[in-house]
Amino acid sequence: MAIPKVMGTEIEYGITVQNDQDFDPISGCVLLVNAYTEDHEGSILWDYDQENPLADARGFQVDGEKYTPNQQENIARNKTLVNGARYYVDHAHPEYSCPEVTNARELVMHEKAGEKVLDKSRQEADALLPPGTKMLLYKNNSDRKGNSYGSHENYLMDRKTSFKQIAGHLIPFFVTRQVFTGAGKVGSENRGRPCDYQLSQRSDFFETEVALDTMVKRPIINTRDEPHADREKYRRLHVIVGDSNMSEYTIFLRNGVTALVLQMIEDGAVSQDFSLRDPVRAIKDVSQDVRCRLPIELMDGRKLTAVEMQGEFLELAQKYFLKYEATAEQKDLVKKWEYVLSKLAKEPRDLNREIDWVIKLSLIESFMDRKDLDWDSSQVQMLDLQYHDLRPEKGLYNLLERQGKVERIVTDEEIQTAIINPPEDTRAYFRGECLRKYGGQVFGVNWDSISFGIGEEPIKRVLMAEPLKGSKQHVEDLLKSSPTAADLVANLRT
User: Are 169 and 274 in contact (CB under 8 A)?
Assistant: First the structure.
C-alpha cells in the first residue's frame, strides 16, 4: 500500500522596485524578508548542514560545492515561521516554502497563506524605501528577459519504488497536465516558437527529460535526492515543471491529482506505457495548443491529445478506487478532474472560473476587444503580469476573487489561520510550536531537525526523520509539560 503523500510547495516570487533604476534584487529580497516579523524571540539559523542538493536519485553524487553562508548572512536571508514554513532569499528571489501537509486542500490554505506573508512583507518594506518608490511582487514564473524562476512541488514517496519507474510514468503525465495546471502566458521566450498565448509559463524553459539541474537545461523530471526524512525509507520527489498558480481550484488539482497519480504508481496501478516519442518537444507543443486538440505521438505509434492522455490517467484512477477506498478529498479530486477534462474536450474557455490559463485568457481577450489591441501590445503584456500582482488593490486575479468571479476552495478565515498556525498532522506542528514557545532558545532549524541552544550546554539537535511524527497528537502533551527548551530536551530523553 502506498505511503501517505505528504506534500509542500516552494514558490519563488518576482520582485522589483518601482522608480528605482539602481534596484538590486538581492538587497531587495533581504530587505523584504527581514521586514516580516513574528511574535517570537531570537535569530534562528537555517541548518544547511542537513542539506545535500548534489545527491542524484539515479544513485550518484554530482560534482560541485554546497552553498553554506556565514552566520550573519544566514540570519539575514532566512526566516522560519511559527506556521512551520520557511521564508527566505533564494538567489535573487524571495521564496516561500510552505509547511508539510497531508492533503491538497490544506496545501491550498498554506500556499495562499504564503501570498499573504509576502504581501505583508511588501507593505512593511515599503515603509523603509525612499519616498516615491514601491516594491512590487509577482507570483509568476518569468521576467520576460529570458529568466525563469520556479514553482516547485514536493511529495513524499516510498524509497522502494524505483526512480526509473516513477520517471517513466510521470513524464507523459507532467507533459499533459498543463492543460489544467498552466498559469497562462502571452508570447514565448527562450528561443521558443512564436505564439500569441500559451498554457504554461514554464514550458519554454525545459530542455531535457531527466536531470539534476533546476536553473539551466531544466528537466521535466528533476533527480535531486534530498528526502529531508529517513532516506532508507523515503524519497522526496522534487517537481520543477509546474507554474505559479493564482487560482485555488488550479492549485488544488495540480497537487491533489499529482499526489493521487504518485499513490497509484506506488501501488502498481499505472500499468500502461504512455511513453512519448519526444517529451521535450511535446511539452512545448501542448503549451501552445490553446484549443487542446493537438495530437502528440507516443513511442508505440499512437497519437493522443493532452486531454485524452489525462483521460487515460483518470480512467486508471477510477479503476484504482474500485479496489482501494478513496477519502472524501480523493473523491472530490476525481470528480473535479473529470469535470475539467470534459470541459477541455468540448470548449476550454468554459473553465473561465476555475483554471488559471483560461481565466487569464478570457480577461486579456475582453480587454483587447474593448481597447482594439493586438497580442504584441505592451498593454497586453502588462495585463499578463498584473494578473499575478500580489497587491490586493492592483492584482487582477485578486480583483476577480473579490468580485466572486472565480471558484474558491478555502475561505479567507482558513488562510488567515494558516498564516499563524502550522498543520496539526505533520512534524510542521512540532517545528512551529517550538518556535512559538521556545523561540529564544532555538538555535537552528531544518525540515527534519530542530536544534536548541540551552545555556552553556552544547547545541542539542532533535531529529524529525518521520514527517508524520511531531503532529499535535504526538507532541501536544509533551509541549504542555515542558515549560522550557531544557525541559523539552530532558523529556524527549525519557
Answer: yes
Mean pLDDT of the chain: 95
The whole-angstrom separation of Cα 341 and Cα 347 is 10
The answer on pLDDT for 50 being more than 80 is no
At residue 41, the pLDDT reads: 64
pLDDT in tens, 222-250: 999 999 999 999 999 999 999 999 999 99
Statement: the pTM of the whole predicted model exceeds 0.85: yes
270 C-beta neighbours (distance < 10 Å), count: 22
Beta bridge partners of 461: 451
pLDDT for 214 equals 75
Q: How far is CA 404 from CA 122, 189, 245, 272, 370, in A?
A: 25, 33, 18, 41, 22
| Fold annotation for 7-38+81-417 | Creatine Kinase; Chain A, domain 2 (3.30.590)
Domain ranges of the chain: 7-38+81-417, 418-493
The catalytic position among 56, 90, 119, 332 is: 90
Contact 400, 388 (CB under 8 A): no
Per-residue 3-state assignment (H helix, E strand, C coil) for 80-130: ECCCCCEEEEECCEEEEECCCECCHHHHHHHHHHHHHHHHHHHHHHHCCCC
Q: Which residue in 183, 36, 30 sits closest to 93, CA to CA?
A: 30
Between 18-22, 156-160, 248-252, 461-465, the lowest mean confidence (pLDDT) is in 18-22
Residue type for position 446? N
Q: Taking Cα atoms as reference points, which of 43, 42, 48, 14 lies closest to residue 28?
A: 14
CA nearest neighbour of 359 among 373, 340, 333: 340
Write down the number of H helices and E strands in the chain: 15, 20
According to DSSP, the β-strands at 45-46 and 442-446 are parallel
Alpha helices per DSSP H over 347-391:
356-371, 378-386
Rounded to whole angstroms, the Cα distance separating 74 from 470 reads 26
Question: Cβ(124)–Cβ(36) under 8 Å?
Answer: yes
Determine whether 267 is an active site residue. no
